[in-house]
Design goal:
Helices cover 28% and strands 23% of the residues. Helix 5 (194-201) packs across helix 9. The protein folds into 2 domains: 47-145, Rieske [2Fe-2S] iron-sulphur domain (Rieske Iron-sulfur Protein, 3-layer Sandwich), CATH 2.102.10.10; 177-415, Naphthalene 1,2-dioxygenase Alpha Subunit, Chain A, domain 1 (Alpha-Beta Complex). A hairpin with a 2-residue loop joins strand 9 (141-145) and strand 10 (148-152). The chain has 10 helices and 17 strands. With 418 residues, it is α+β, with helices and mostly antiparallel strands. The protein is globular and about 85 Å long.
Length: 418
Amino acid sequence: MSVANLKTHSELARGRTPGHGMPGELFGRQDVFETDVDVFFHKHWILAGVTADVPEPGDVSTVDIGKASILIVRDDDENIRAWRNVCRHRGARLKDAGKSTVGMLVCPYHQWTYDLDGSLKHTTHMGVDFDRSCRGLIPVKTRIVGTHIFVCLSDDAPADMDILEQTMAPRFAPYDLTRTRIAHEAEIIENGNWKLVIENNRECYHCGATHPELTASFLPEDFGFCPQGLSEESQRALDAYHARNAASVSSWEKDGLICNAFERLDPDAATSFRTQRLVIAGNGESQTMDTRVASRKLLGELQRRDLGDVHMWTHNSWTHVMSDHAVVSYIVPLAPDKTLVRTKWLVHEDAVEGVDYDLNALTEVWVATNAQDASLVATNYRGTQDPAYEPGPFSPFTETYVELFAQWYAARLGAHGV
């Protein structure tokens, strides 16, 4: 196909057949990728880390997002701030991606020196009339929700981030997630487009056949299922599922815990998210192979182990919070066919490895699941780039959230004039 005959980004997104997958060009084209980064990662709120990334004053977490880079710092007053990783002299990067600890932020090029509050403190050879006060680091809008550090690189940050914060803060509050530390963190570069990573995360049609570790802690009905033509045995299992859910919710709500599903996934929502407290299968305690807590030191001041799984989705992240630990994952797009997935396992700040928890028991479910998902995304991406690919129909029972994501994606492009 000649360049002149290529469909525009808008035509591809809004020309999708409802209830069907996106066209392959939306996953593979470089121009589409660059627009996606600009719209969905520079103009929307995104998850960029957790408070335990910067536990002490002077700690810095540098996160690259497309051509942009940000410095997440904890300042001397224990506040978490974010700054553009650009020296106000000639633009050099102050820090490479990753974590470090500093007294001040010093540009490696000409040694312009910034306090953690962003102010420019020291320069040489600029003369007595040079005004440092207007050359501080450029701030990045930041919200802390539980342990989650959300940032927005746009000057016009979506105001509906307030809804996510108001919804999630009381759900996370019992776990006191700011009093956690990172027990383990891992990175995977998945060989697929970022939208395929999110689509894969939004459905569990594939889970029963590909995620034996993850499904050990999920009730199978939570994967989604076709309710038509159920056998008597399947109907009894469904009735038992509803009864178990009702009993769990009743018990949790008596303890003052929020359980209901809340979702803001419609095309008009700039800040897209969903949350719910899900029942854990088996022993009902945690996402582990034996469904018991991996850490005997529970989060916050909790005493009860069977609190289910408080999950949260956003358009670049997914979180699972149990009584004993939390798993937080977020994505950064690297190329049309490459997506970085960062995952952090959080435990109580006082939990001791080998005493309170075994690291393998804590991490084995999501280490395996992430690796399996990376393989699935890679094979899915390769198929979407095959000339024979035609978007197929979604299951109306198990892929509802994939359809909603596709609708939201097209609408947000339109909202930004694409």
